[in-house]
């Protein structure tokens, strides 16, 4: 007898729909059929584990990957990965990537004529500790234009990829900065219906995380789907 | 259920993820051919509603080892783990929308209760233009357990069910090739799951 302790369903208002034409790239890419409801099995409640170190040496200081220091406002970006009940999610892989302080990605397809920074790639990754904590040092990414609509600009953001304990908990998301005037106009950010869920994607400036004469501190907790207390047997 | 915290919403990976998520070695799940079981190549094309290839998709897979065991604490089955097989893979589509994994044919894993599921691979697709990643499953043509698999048979329309079944496509150095195309939209749209 295999018992399956399921992960909670996602809440409609708390997640974006792929059918969201304000973000024009969705138009030809969103499925038109309703997704088929699947009762979670061992396949969905398991997923890659990261305790054995197979993901290699961590990359936590994005300002020290090259000869010199990148241009930009230094930031310490730290937080916890939690489940819906506030329990820490330890030993899970967190990957981040971002534009440089001028709003340019170290990516061959990014043709925005803002300067590249030879001292900044914008990639980091680490496995959370026993308390579910992660911590990176980076620079604040710049805003950048995109061709979604005329004169459109992406709000400043850092991309996050997080696994959690199961295939069901895997998420890729973006972290935004509080008070960014571009948020109001950003269709990717606004694809999330509930305001409280949009606010969950905001980092919080934390003076206790800032280091004097050195770097600004931003705290960003990531909350993954929680889990039913009791298994569904059959 | 008294969930206290609001879960973090997903957002698109955008078009510029490659340098951030690059792990070319993760497209080989066999540990350089050392994993136990029948070696296979899983490959296919990801296309949009016009049938155009997606050059900027992230395909991730998760599956049991050849004995039908997941390397995960919640899999309490009395079956052997394989030190050379972890079960997780990541590949990006290329300019032609093609992804490719080297892996092993998974064994059958239990369903709820005592029934077995047919051998299958869980797949997630993220891309520019997808605000939320999509979940699908890859089954193998010709498996006797397909006819009784609870997930596969939950898709009643025969043409739609067929979108979940990989087809044999010859042999390569990495083993038997299984072809699994993913149509995000429109004609032949792949079945995606919600769970």
Structure, explained:
- The complex is a heterodimer of chains A (234) and B (195).
- Chain A is mainly beta and 234 residues long.
- Chain A has a single domain, classed as Sandwich (Protocatechuate 3,4-Dioxygenase, subunit A), CATH 2.60.130.10.
- Chain A contains two helices and twelve strands, in the order E-H-E-E-E-E-E-E-E-E-H-E-E-E.
- Chain A has helices at 42-45, 195-199, and strands at residues 36-37, 74-83, 93-98, 123-127, 133-139, 144-146, 152-154, 157-162, 171-176, 204-205, 216-219, 222-224.
- In chain A, strands 2, 5, 10, 11 and 12 form a five-stranded mixed beta sheet that branches. Chain A has a four-stranded antiparallel beta sheet with strand order 4-3-8-9, with no helix packed on it. A two-stranded antiparallel sheet of chain A has the order 6-7.
- In chain A, a hairpin with an 8-residue loop joins strand 8 (157-162) and strand 9.
- By secondary structure, chain B is mainly beta.
- Chain B has one domain (29-183): Protocatechuate 3,4-Dioxygenase, subunit A, CATH 2.60.130.
- In chain B, 7% of the residues lie in helices and 30% in strands.
- Chain B contains three helices and ten strands.
- Chain B has helices at residues 18-21, 150-153, 158-162, and strands spanning 39-47, 57-62, 88-92, 98-104, 120-127, 134-140, 165-172, 175-179, 182-183, 193-194.
- In chain B, strands 1, 2, 3, 4, 5, 6, 7, 8 and 9 form a nine-stranded mixed beta sheet that branches.
- In chain B, a hairpin with a 6-residue loop joins strand 5 (120-127) and strand 6.
- The mean pLDDT of chain B is 96.
- Chains A and B meet through strand 1, helix 1, strand 3, strand 9 and helix 2 of A and helix 1, strand 2, strand 5, strand 6 and strand 10 of B.
- Strand 1 (36-37) of chain A pairs parallel with strand 10 of chain B.
């Amino acid at each position: 007898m295999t018992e399956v302790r399921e992960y909670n369903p996602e809440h409609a208002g708390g997640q974006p729909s792929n059918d969201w034409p304000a973000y024009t790239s969705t138009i030809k890419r969103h499925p038109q059929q309703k997704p088929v409801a699947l009762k979670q099995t061992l396949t969905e409640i398991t997923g890659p584990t990261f305790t054995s170190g197979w993901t290699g040496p961590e990359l936590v200081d994005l300002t020290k990957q090259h000869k010199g220091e990148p241009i930009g406002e230094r930031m310490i970006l730290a937080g916890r990965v939690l489940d819906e009940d506030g329990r820490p999610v330890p030993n899970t892989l967190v990957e981040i990537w971002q534009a440089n302080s001028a709003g340019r990605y170290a990516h061959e397809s990014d043709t925005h004529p803002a300067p590249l920074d030879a001292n900044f790639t914008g990639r980091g990754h680490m496995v959370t500790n026993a308390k579910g904590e992660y911590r990176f040092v980076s620079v604040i990414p710049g805003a950048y234009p995109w061709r979604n609509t005329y004169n459109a600009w992406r709000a400043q953001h850092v991309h996050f990829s997080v696994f959690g304990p199961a295939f069901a908990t895997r998420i890729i998301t973006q972290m935004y900065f509080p008070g960014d005037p571009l948020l109001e106009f950003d269709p990717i950010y606004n694809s999330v219906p509930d305001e409280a869920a949009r606010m969950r994607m905001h980092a919080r400036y934390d003076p206790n995380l800032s280091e004097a004469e050195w770097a600004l501190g931003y705290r960003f907790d990531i909350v993954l789907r929680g889990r039913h207390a009791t298994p569904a047997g059959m | 259920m008294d969930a206290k915290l609001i879960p973090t919403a997903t957002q698109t990976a955008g078009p510029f993820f490659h340098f951030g998520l690059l792990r070319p070695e993760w497209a080989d799940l066999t540990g350089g051919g050392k994993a136990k079981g029948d070696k296979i190549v899983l490959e296919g094309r990801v296309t949009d509603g016009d049938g155009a290839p997606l050059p900027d998709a992230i395909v991730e897979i998760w599956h049991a080892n050849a004995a039908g065991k997941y390397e995960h604490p919640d899999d309490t089955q009395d079956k052997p783990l394989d030190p050379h097989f972890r079960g997780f893979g990541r590949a990006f589509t290329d300019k032609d929308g093609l992804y490719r994994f080297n892996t092993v044919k998974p064994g059958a894993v239990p369903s709820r209760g005592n029934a077995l599921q047919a051998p299958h691979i869980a797949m997630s697709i993220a891309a520019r233009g997808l605000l939320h990643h999509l979940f699908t499953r890859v089954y193998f043509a010709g498996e006797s357990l397909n006819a009784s698999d609870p997930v596969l048979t939950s898709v009643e329309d025969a043409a739609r069910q067929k979108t979940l079944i990989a087809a044999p496509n010859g042999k390569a150095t990495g083993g038997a090739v299984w072809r699994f195309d993913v149509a995000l939209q429109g004609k032949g749209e792949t079945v995606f799951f919600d769970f």
